[in-house]
Specification:
The complex is a heterodimer of chains A (337) and B (129). With 337 residues, chain A is an alpha+beta fold. Chain A is built from 12 helices and 10 strands. Chain B is built from 6 helices and no strands. Classes of the chains: A alpha+beta (337), B mainly alpha (129). Chains A and B meet through helix 7, helix 11 and helix 12 of A and helix 2, helix 4 and helix 5 of B.
Chain lengths: 337, 129
């Protein structure tokens, strides 16, 4: 499918008229948005009976990542998150009829704001009160973690607790031609230090700077709902606080925007959980392991020759940086020592 | 033997010229791609400059870790030997050999290997913190 083709646009216009039940629907603008190696996002402006709507059309890119949800599942996740008062784009219409554009897609409301990590962490005009933004991220994450595995609409999500993650990453490393001793060390450390008991909630699994929109200094919405699961809620906390997602400000633990206390006090208050330094350290290690595995998968897409890409190729070269952080974070806490 | 400048020298001057003349002239839309090309050229140059030395140092440490005597290897044979050792190392880490007494020795080795890798792929990360 190519949404730049007039025929595809005509079919899309017809679909929108049917889906909305309006008499006239006109596509005013349809432009590919930046980012999204896995999914394509298109900024879509539509006039419905004379009223202008700002939407995003989200569809599969050519290459699919095996861990990603289908568009229909992602649409359901957005519905559930939205109903739970989590800041997220409101999902509007799901189209699984391949006759329209050739691929499944859904339409959601377009939120205002800036997401780019290097801007959010660098531009103090954008985030006038970083501590407040950190509290908003915390309260929002606590609301998200109130969604439980018993939710009737989310039966398709898998459960990934600490040991499931370890097994999953090991099974992936076992498919690679080269061994990765630092990652093996990190996984062994995580195995030895795995929490005895874990709470299981809905988790976003990509809740980080770069994936949320900041508008007028406030959290406008969280994006990229393609990798959620049921798991340990602290996995999301570790991911948000991992060094690899701090962009221009590695000194600011919470996503390169704020100090830990700014976030943690509010998360603990809103969720009723206690996050110890040991918990945080553990899930920061897991975050770097996960990102390293994803980076290896991405460079593998280039190396296999199926998807030659300079960006994917260079992703292979960030593994060393992630390994260094894993070594820095695993100096203590080994059980029985 | 090919004429000079050699691969390292050609990469060095390509990187310098690209950074000085092409990158500033690129429109905003292509800037990220330009930065990626500059980065890739720099990594390739550093890898060629380092040559066999990082692999040889890693191999020597692995020989000690596995109580094997030193061997003189180069080129593909060296790469294969390092890869074989690393498979063994990965398996033994997973099996728990380094959980206790040998942990410090392992971490020292991994730290050096990672340092050598970053010296090529991202020297800035090595100096951070």
């Amino acid at each position: 499918m190519n949404l730049d083709e007039p025929a595809a646009r005509r079919r899309l216009t017809g679909y929108i008229a049917r889906a909305t039940g309006k008499r006239t629907a006109t596509i005013v603008a349809l432009e590919r948005m930046s980012g999204g190696a896995v999914q394509e996002n298109w900024a879509l402006d539509v006039e419905l009976d004379g009223e202008l709507q700002h939407w995003v059309l989200r569809t599969d890119a050519q290459a699919t990542v095996r861990e990603s949800l289908t568009r229909a599942q992602e649409f359901t996740v957005l519905e559930v998150a939205h109903a739970a008062n989590v800041f997220a784009p409101e999902p509007l219409y799901l189209c699984e009829d391949l006759a329209v554009t050739g691929r499944a897609f859904f339409i959601m409301r377009r939120l205002p704001g800036v997401a780019a990590g290097h801007k959010v962490t660098r531009d103090s005009q954008l985030v006038a009160d970083p501590a407040r933004l950190a509290r908003e991220l915390a309260a929002n994450l606590a609301r998200l973690h109130e969604i439980r595995p018993s939710h009737p609409q989310l039966g398709f999500l898998k459960t990934m607790l600490a040991r499931d993650n370890i097994a999953h990453y090991r099974s992936y490393l076992d498919t690679l031609p080269d061994a990765h001793p630092v990652l093996e060390w990190g996984l062994r450390w995580c195995e030895l230090n795995a929490p005895a008991r874990e709470e299981t909630t809905f988790i976003h699994r990509d809740y980080r700077t770069g994936n949320y929109l900041v508008h007028n200094g406030s959290l406008a919405g969280v994006l990229d709902w393609e990798f959620p699961a049921f798991g340990n809620p602290l996995e999301d906390v570790g991911w948000l606080c991992a060094r690899c997602w701090r962009f221009a400000r590695p000194d600011l633990i919470v996503g390169g925007i704020a100090a830990l206390e700014d976030f943690l006090a509010e998360y603990e208050r809103a969720s009723g959980r206690t996050v110890t330094p040991r918990d945080l350290n553990y899930w920061q290690v897991m975050a770097h392991l996960r990102w390293a595995v994803i980076a290896l998968q991405q460079s593998g897409r280039h190396l296999s020759g199926t998807e030659p890409s300079l960006e994917l190729a260079l992703t292979g070269h960030i593994v060393g940086e992630l390994e260094l952080e894993i070594l820095n974070l695993t100096r203590s806490y080994l059980k029985n020592t | 033997m090919n004429d000079r400048p050699n691969a390292r020298e050609l990469l060095a001057i390509s990187h310098a010229t690209f950074t000085a003349e092409i990158l500033p002239a690129l429109p905003e839309k292509l800037r990220y791609t330009g930065l990626m090309i500059a980065n890739a050229l720099a990594i390739a140059r550093r890898e060629i400059e380092a040559g066999d030395a990082p692999a040889r140092a890693e191999f020597e440490r692995l020989c000690v870790l596995f109580s094997d005597g030193p061997r003189e290897l180069a080129g593909d044979a060296l790469a294969v030997a390092v890869a074989d050792y690393n498979h063994r190392l990965a398996n033994e880490i997973r099996a728990g050999r380094f959980d206790q007494e040998e942990r410090a020795v392992l971490l020292e080795h991994l730290r050096r290997t990672t340092g050598a890798k970053l010296a090529i792929s991202n020297p800035k990360a090595l100096n951070a913190k």
